[in-house]
Amino acid sequence: MIVTIDGPAGAGKSSAAKALAKRLGFHFLDTGAMYRAVVHAALERGVDLDDAEALEQVAASLDIQLTDDAVLVDGQDVTRVIRTQDITTATRYAADHPGIRARLVELQRAAAEGQNFVTEGRDQGSIVFPHAECKIFLTASERVRAERRYHDLTARGEQLTFEEVLEKQQQRDQRDASRPVGALIKARDAVVLDTDGMSAEEVVDRLHEIVMQHQ
């Protein structure tokens, strides 16, 4: 069974999807981490992110392994370093690249073949797994999403104001909705869950109920 969870930045998809997968006994696939990993590797190698061809070559050369708890690139654990605001802002270079997106979509489908997975991202229900048994669109109001992101970043020691986080999120929302490939689109058969006012546990409880209704 494939459960897809899509939604805008800061909606809490990663943490909710990971917790849901654990409760279901499913594997967890954080697709956004794959794009972050490509950008991080490119920066580590001194590649100009504006050089689309060089960036695609980096993506093609990487061995990206996602476990339920870690992101490994060529055997190196990059789980934490790919979550910085700088990497978040630069991820668009990989996410907007048709060649890179095609390769990563191929890897995502291969990873989930014949397995039970909860997968999260922007295009999982609409593009990557259009025949998924359960599709969910997780969202929240703009300010709530920015507040969550702000607390996550400050907890990691990053020095940013809430206004800076909100502005970057607004820019990302616009890019996610308008990118030429893999744009954020709610699948027609997705169940919408607005998490405003809900605790993390309440969100997972509701997600679990939705999945049970689709089994």
UniProtKB/TrEMBL annotation:
It is found in: Cytoplasm. This is Cytidylate kinase. Residues 3-211 form the Cytidylate kinase domain. It comes from the Bacteria. ATP binds at G7, P8, A9, G10, A11, G12, K13, S14, S15. InterPro entries: Cytidylate_kin, Cytidylate_kinase_dom, P-loop_NTPase. Transmembrane segments: none annotated. It catalyses: CMP + ATP = CDP + ADP; dCMP + ATP = dCDP + ADP. Its EC number is 2.7.4.25. Keywords: ATP-binding, Cytoplasm, Kinase, Nucleotide-binding, Transferase. The gene is cmk. One of its GO terms (molecular function) is ATP binding. CDD domains: CMPK (cd02020). One of its GO terms (cellular component) is cytosol. Belongs to the cytidylate kinase family. Type 1 subfamily. GO terms for biological process: nucleobase-containing small molecule interconversion; pyrimidine nucleotide metabolic process.
